[in-house]
Structures are given as C-alpha cells and as structure tokens.
Specification:
372 residues; 3-stranded parallel sheet; alpha/beta
Length: 372
C-alpha cells in the first residue's frame, strides 16, 4: 500500500505530523520516568534521549501519534531519530538496543494508525521511519590541526545507518524519512545504506529526503546551496525531497521556492513554529503558521507538509484544514542534464556556454602561467 504514495502525493497534498519532542516536553517527564525499570541503573543521564520512551512509555508515544492523526495527519514519524548504533554509542548504551528501539518505535506508531483506522476505516495513514543525522559529521574534521580527522568514516556511517534502516523496514514502516540532514555527506551515506539494504533484501519502500538549511539558504555543515544539495542527491529514487527544522516558514519561504524551481520530484517541508524566544518557546500560532503554509501551497510548491520543532496537533489541524482543497505541486518532467556540485551547483543546461574544468592559473601545473 505504501507504494501508492508515489501517485497519491501527486493527487493531493499529504499532511505530515508535527514535533514529537515538543509534545514529550509537555509531559514533564523526569529522569526516572524516561529510564523506567529497564534502564534504572544506567550510568549516563538519559532524560534527553526520548527515543527510549518507545520502550519505557509506549502508551505516551502512541497517544502523541494518535493526536496528530486526529488533527489530520496522513503520515506519522516514528520516535526513532537517534536509534542507530552511533546513537547508542553516544548514550553509552549497547548496540543491540537499536533493534528493540526501532521495533518499539514502529509499533507505537502502528498502534496509533490501527486505532485511527478502526475509528475511521476510510483513512489511509502511513508510518514513516524517522532517521536522524547522528551527532557525527563526515564533512568536517574534529581536530583543527588535522583536516582529515573524523570520528567515523563513510563506511562506518553506512554500516550504522544500514542497521537502523533494516530494523525500521522489517518492523513494518511504510516509508523511510532521513531528515534534518545538516551534512550532505552523512545523508549520502544514509542513502547508500538504504540502497544496499533494498538490493540485498529485495524489499523496497518509498523514501522521503529532508535537509536542514540555515537562514542564508545553505545546509548547516556542508554549506551547500539549495541547488547544489539537490544535485548531490538527485540520483537517488525518492518519493520526495524537502527541508525541515532550523527556521519558521517565513524564513523558509525563499528556499522552498528555489527548491521548487530545480527539482523534478514532489516536495515536502516541515518547518519549525517560528524561532525559539528567550525562554526557548515557539511563538508562531497555528493560524499564523497555516497562513504561511497556505501561501506555499497556492504557489504550487508542496506535496507533503507538516511541522517540526514547536509545532503541535493544533498547528497540524490548522494546516490540514487550510490547504485541504488546494491541489499539490505537479513536478516537471525529468530533464537529463549534467549536474555537479560542491558548495555551489554547476548544472550544464543547453544555454550554458563553453565550460572549462581544471585550474589554468596554477603555477605548478601550467608552465605558461608560471612564466607570466
């Protein structure tokens, strides 16, 4: 059924859920509540590792999923943002725990979906396996004096992602969502892991891809422009490409507009409910957030939309009601161009003039230039 999404997101705008962390914070759970009995004696603080609640408080997580479904969400994301071997190492938890976490995360979301389907059999709801960027970055060194130094290498990152991908798929996720990608190289390692798992298992489900951009329109760590980012990942067969987190819809607007100009696949966005104020709270009201999202939709930029940090079921309800009758973006037919990217994009279009590749002003490589 999940493969129907390739057609469905071209027929109407689908609604993604909102923030999980914001809703968990409202529960005001302390360290003991997050640990439960199973992790009561763990030596490291766990209160901020909310993925554990899928095991210690599955009822609470499932209720949050259900609240979003009641608000109009078509897709709910599993509470598995950090549930990879690298994530386990960060919290000094055993790698074997990843299986329990990912299976429990899918189960929490699936129970909410089943509960909604029982209430309203006409609803088509989906579980997206959320995959976070990890706390390690492949694009930057961890030592100022050694530019090549990395805490993990590319293949280690692929291996970590592959464990989580396999577990989310085998637990029953309908689609995968690598999100909040601040380092394109990390994201590419995740896409390699997904492709390897699909090829080896002969199983295939849709994949959404979502990156995080700063206010200047560049990915946070790899500092790529929107088009350069797209050129970096456009080879991968995806359900959608989009952006989430770091900014509210007002600041995200020009970047979504640019993405709509360069990509030939459906577009997703789930912005924050504005930027946090001095108290760490988000001030953008549901109605005001819906105003911005309606503008995105009426401009023909959206196929999937939801909320990130600070958003709640009230925000999702307002968005769902506001865009219900607005048609989705119609992606253009794919055009085969040579697409290259570093931090900037080089796309060789028909109108592109002669392009020279290489350093002509290099005294080592060019005797003629050295003699000038």
């Amino acid at each position: 059924m999940s493969n129907d999404l390739f057609h469905l997101v071209r027929e109407r705008i689908h609604i993604l859920d909102g923030a999980m962390g914001t809703m968990i914070q409202r529960l005001k759970l302390d360290e003991a509540a997050v640990r439960g009995e199973r992790f009561a004696n763990h030596h490291k603080d766990l209160v901020r590792f909310s993925d554990l609640l899928c095991i210690t408080r599955p009822d609470a997580i499932s209720d949050i999923h259900y609240a979003y479904l009641e608000s109009g969400a078509d897709i709910v994301e599993t509470n598995s943002f950090g549930a990879s071997p690298i994530g386990m190492a960060e919290m000094e938890l055993p790698e074997e725990l990843t299986r329990d976490l990912n299976y429990a995360a899918v189960d929490c979301a699936r129970k909410a979906v089943d509960r909604m389907r029982k209430k309203d059999p006409s609803r088509r709801c989906y579980v997206a396996g959320s995959i976070g960027p990890t706390t390690k970055q492949l694009a930057i060194s961890t030592k100022v004096e050694d530019a090549a130094n990395r805490d993990v290498d590319f293949l280690e990152m692929v291996a970590s992602y592959k464990v989580q991908v396999a577990q989310l798929v085998e637990a029953g996720a309908d689609l995968l969502l690598p999100e909040t990608a601040i380092d394109t190289l990390n994201l590419k390692s995740c896409l390699v892991a997904i492709a390897e798992y699909f090829n080896e298992s002969k199983r295939r489900i849709p994949v959404m891809v979502s990156a995080t951009f700063g206010t200047g329109g560049r990915t946070f760590v790899s500092a790529q422009t929107v088009e350069a980012f797209w050129n970096s990942v456009s080879h991968f067969p995806m359900l959608s490409v989009g952006m989430n987190c770091a900014m509210g819809p007002d600041i995200m607007r020009p970047h979504i507009e640019e993405l709509a100009k360069v990509t030939d696949v459906p577009i997703s966005c789930h912005p924050n409910a504005g930027l946090p104020n001095s108290f760490g709270e988000y001030d953008l009201t549901p109605s005001r957030m819906a105003d911005y999202i309606e503008d995105f939709a009426r401009n023909g930029w959206l196929n999937i939309v939801g909320g990130c940090c600070g958003s709640t079921p009230d925000h999702i309800r307002a968005i769902s009601e506001r865009i219900r009758d607005i048609p989705p973006r119609v992606p253009p037919e794919p055009i085969v161009w040579t697409r290259l990217s570093g931090q900037e994009a080089t796309t060789l279009r028909p109108e592109t003039r002669f392009t020279m590749v290489g350093e002509r002003t290099n005294v080592t490589g060019s005797k003629a230039f050295a003699n000038l």
